[in-house]
């Protein structure tokens, strides 16, 4: 029996560049291994992150919610469950995301420019945006876009 093709999983990385400007680019997780979680379980594709202490928050952003310019409080994975939202970075790039999309928020250490610091975000459309946010107790990186490839 042939082994299935190794999957990839796209994500948006909001990061701080060397000049302190927040940017975002789309990358893919690619370090998947086909392995069971224990010997009695059928193999599944897993891309394990480095171990770290983490906190999980379930978030509901109301219709019309806007979070003006701010940095992510810590590096955090954000998975959209329902609804839509946007993220606009200091470089002017605005991305809308919906159910099933994934983002790494890592724009700590930005430098304020023209009233902008970090990113702004908000809901899109006429329904709340629900998400699961996994904040990591790790040191944020600078100018390492797509570091989870």
UniProtKB/TrEMBL annotation:
InterPro entries: RmlC-like_jellyroll, RmlC_Cupin_sf
Transmembrane segments: none
Region of interest called Disordered, as start-end residue ranges on this chain: 97-127
Name of the protein this chain belongs to: Cupin domain-containing protein
Upper lineage: Bacteria, Pseudomonadati, Pseudomonadota, Alphaproteobacteria, Hyphomicrobiales
């Amino acid at each position: 029996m042939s082994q299935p093709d190794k999957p990839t999983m796209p994500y948006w990385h909001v990061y701080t560049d060397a000049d302190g400007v927040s940017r975002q680019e789309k990358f893919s997780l690619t370090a998947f291994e086909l392995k069971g979680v224990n010997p009695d379980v059928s193999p599944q594709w897993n891309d394990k992150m480095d171990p770290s202490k983490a906190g999980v928050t379930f978030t509901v952003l109301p219709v019309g919610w806007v979070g003006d310019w701010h940095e992510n409080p810590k590096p955090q994975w954000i998975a959209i469950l329902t609804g839509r939202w946007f993220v606009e970075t200091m470089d002017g790039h605005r991305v809308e995301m919906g159910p099933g999309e994934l983002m790494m928020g890592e724009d700590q250490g930005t430098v304020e420019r023209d009233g902008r610091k970090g990113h702004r975000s908000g809901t899109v459309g006429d329904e709340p945006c629900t998400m699961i946010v996994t904040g990591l107790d790790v040191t944020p990186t600078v100018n390492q876009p797509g570091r989870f490839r």
